[in-house]
Design goal:
Number of helices: 5
Shape: elongated
Helix content: 10-25%
Largest sheet: 11 strands, antiparallel
Length: 253
């Protein structure tokens, strides 16, 4: 039997499930666990991934939230057997390196996306470079984001970005309400590429940068690339295979 550390969101439904599962299977401290079983929704799963990054322990989520795209179906029976037969997916986060107008710097990881947002009533003016070569001199927009395959079904898809297969080895670069060039729909770029965003007219058109839960306001330059050295393993029941679910999202209304 695996040593399980149960981690639950603060919601009532997650806490009730936590007590039932601990009664059935016992619980182990996080330092000695073989697997984290996470009870909540996608937001709580992302928080948990950030908190326990670098420990080399796989994560098995059960949906006690709303969307639950990164979670399995909640079932109390045969948990040990399901863990033993689960498929593993490795997630590599993006690393954001942002510099603010006052000189403050912030590095942060993002498993879903790094996004840039206008802070005022005026649209942002952003220059985009790939591996040091300028590709977009002026993107006038509400914002722009770069998404991992795992995050491509989230906010990226809501702003009409492409859904990326988990094994595609690419990232999605997607504008948010572009005004000029009006018809630019973004780009698909290699996962090893380094993307740089330079904020033009930063005083007149201030921009904030967000990596999952970390925000830096009034940025002047943001660099994003995949952190290939960091990988977290998510476990999925065969019938909840993440690769299949990402594919199926493309056919939903």
């Amino acid at each position: 039997m695996r040593k399980i550390c149960f981690l639950a969101d603060s919601t009532e439904i997650a806490q009730k499930s936590l007590k039932r599962l601990q009664k059935l299977y016992g619980t182990t401290g996080c330092a000695k666990a073989d697997v984290f079983v996470v009870l909540g929704g996608d937001g709580f799963m992302l928080q948990t991934l950030h908190k326990h990054i670098g420990k080399g322990i796989p994560f098995y989520g059960m949906n006690r939230g709303s969307v639950g795209f990164l979670m399995n179906k909640y079932l109390e029976e045969d948990l040990d057997e399901r863990l033993n037969h689960a498929d593993s997916i490795t997630l590599h986060p993006l690393i954001m390196d942002a510099v603010a107008e006052n000189g403050k710097q912030k590095k942060a990881l993002a498993f879903n996306e790094v996004s840039l947002w206008r802070q005022s009533r005026q649209a942002a003016d952003i220059s985009i470079s790939i591996d040091g070569i300028q590709k977009m001199p002026n993107l006038i927009c509400d914002g722009v984001l770069i998404s991992t395959p795992a995050g491509s079904t989230a906010y990226n898809f809501s702003v009409h970005g492409p859904i990326l297969p988990m094994t595609s080895n690419v990232l999605a670069l997607t504008p948010i309400s572009p005004f000029r060039p009006r018809r630019w729909q973004g780009a698909i770029i290699p996962r090893h590429a380094e993307v740089s965003f330079d904020i033009l007219q930063s005083k007149k058109r201030p921009v904030s940068a967000v990596a999952d839960f970390t925000e830096l306001r009034n940025v002047i330059k943001v660099t994003v690339k995949e952190d290939a050295e960091t990988g977290l393993n998510l476990l999925f029941d065969p019938e909840y295979n993440l690769e299949d679910r990402v594919l199926n999202e493309q056919f939903l209304g």
